[in-house]
DNA sequence: GAACCGTGGCG
DNA sequence: TCGCCAAGGTT
């Protein structure tokens, strides 16, 4: 969006921002990082209770790192993509061992942590440490696609052109840039939404390229569908749910009960073991990972 | 770069 | 109803 509109977006944010627990000066960098992991591909409303429980139980990276990775997987509950729990535990371990237990404030150090990619590194650096970074999540990318490019949706993968657009529009002062970043994201989440944008409530609609072009429909390649029923992902989810809800090790029979087809069931279980989400204890006995070397 | 990785709510 | 979508990352 044009630079001149940054003030409008920030003013809109001050007036309309949701009161989320990971925002504001009382949220530690660790709290911000936990929220960012949980929010990857997961709606805010489902994250809120898990976020509170996690921070109460593990208020610091070291607290989490000193616990078993399986406990992180268990406490992840039904947030989805449980590898995120494992990676958050691994990130906490790296922070404990390499950064003296403090979430690093250097972008490249953040990027080096497990489960932290381009978006999350920029988000933590910006939100927690008030630095100047282009924070390109799906909301921000959609806002720029519409206001600047005149397209309904951004490309599938983040492009250099998008990074250029965001960087060019970004306020120069770090503190302002940090507020602007979360403001644009919030605008995308609340007003410039994917399905039914509320252009009547948008502070920049007057100069939005997409609206001015008559809101042309998306005409790019089919957007990635996510079939689920009958896939390995569904089986993995069912298997892991059994492990999560059990107090200790689980017998093969309990796992076999969740899916009829034995080949796919075995493949899914093997995948979970390969991913480190499940640990074989003995023949036909499994449990959530302890973090200790597997005895053979 | 495409495919894969969970789960649930909403239009 | 059911396809689309949600603050992505890794291989």
UniProtKB/TrEMBL annotation:
Which SUPFAM superfamilies does its entry note? DNA-glycosylase (SSF48150)
Gene Ontology molecular function terms on file = 4 iron, 4 sulfur cluster binding; 8-oxo-7,8-dihydroguanine DNA N-glycosylase activity; adenine/guanine mispair binding; metal ion binding; oxidized purine DNA binding; purine-specific mismatch base pair DNA N-glycosylase activity
| GO BP field | base-excision repair; mismatch repair
Every copy of the HhH-GPD domain together lies at 38-190
Residue runs in coiled coils: none
Q: What is its EC number?
A: 3.2.2.31
Keyword Coiled coil annotated = no
Catalytic class of the enzyme: hydrolase
* Family matches, as Pfam families: EndIII_4Fe-2S, HHH, HhH-GPD
Cofactors needed by this protein, per the record, are:
[4Fe-4S] cluster
Checking InterPro entries in the record gives: DNA_glycosylase, Endonuclease-III-like_CS2, Endonuclease3_FeS-loop_motif, HhH-GPD_domain, HhH_base_excis_C, HhH_motif, MIG/MutY
Name the keywords, alphabetized.
4Fe-4S, DNA damage, DNA repair, Glycosidase, Hydrolase, Iron, Iron-sulfur, Metal-binding
This enzyme catalyses: Hydrolyzes free adenine bases from 7,8-dihydro-8-oxoguanine:adenine mismatched double-stranded DNA, leaving an apurinic site
Q: Which PANTHER family match?
A: ADENINE DNA GLYCOSYLASE
| UniProt similarity note | Belongs to the Nth/MutY family.
Protein's UniProt name: Adenine DNA glycosylase
Q: What taxonomic ancestry is recorded?
A: Bacteria, Bacillati, Actinomycetota, Actinomycetes, Kitasatosporales
């Amino acid at each position: 969006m044009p630079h001149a509109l940054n003030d409008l977006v920030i003013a809109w944010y001050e007036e309309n921002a949701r009161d989320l627990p990971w925002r504001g000066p009382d949220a530690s960098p660790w709290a911000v990082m936990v929220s960012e992991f949980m929010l990857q591909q997961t709606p805010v409303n489902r994250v809120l209770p898990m976020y509170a429980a996690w921070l109460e139980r593990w208020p610091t990276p070291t607290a989490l790192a000193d616990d078993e990775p399986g406990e992180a997987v268990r406490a992840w509950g039904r947030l989805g993509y449980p590898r995120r729990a494992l990676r958050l535990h691994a990130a906490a371990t790296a922070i404990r061992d390499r950064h003296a237990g403090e979430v690093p404030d250097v972008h490249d150090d953040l990027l080096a942590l497990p489960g932290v990619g381009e978006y999350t590194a920029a988000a933590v650096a910006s939100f927690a440490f008030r630095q100047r970074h282009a924070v390109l999540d799906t909301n921000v990318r959609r806002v720029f696609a519409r206001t600047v490019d005149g397209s309904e949706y951004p490309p599938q993968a983040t492009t250099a052109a998008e990074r250029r657009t965001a960087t060019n529009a970004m306020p120069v002062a770090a503190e302002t840039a940090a507020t602007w970043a979360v403001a644009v994201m919030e605008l995308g989440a609340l007003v410039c939404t994917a399905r039914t944008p509320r252009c009547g409530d948008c502070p920049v609609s007057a100069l939005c390229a997409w609206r001015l072009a008559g809101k042309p429909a998306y005409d790019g390649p089919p957007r990635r569908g996510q079939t689920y029923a009958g896939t390995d992902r569904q089986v993995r989810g069912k298997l892991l749910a059994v492990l999560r809800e059990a107090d200790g090790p689980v017998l093969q029979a309990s796992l076999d009960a969740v899916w009829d087809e034995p080949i796919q069931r075995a493949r899914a279980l093997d995948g979970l073991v390969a991913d480190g989400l499940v640990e074989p204890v003995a023949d036909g006995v499994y449990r959530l990972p302890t973090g200790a070397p597997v005895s053979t």
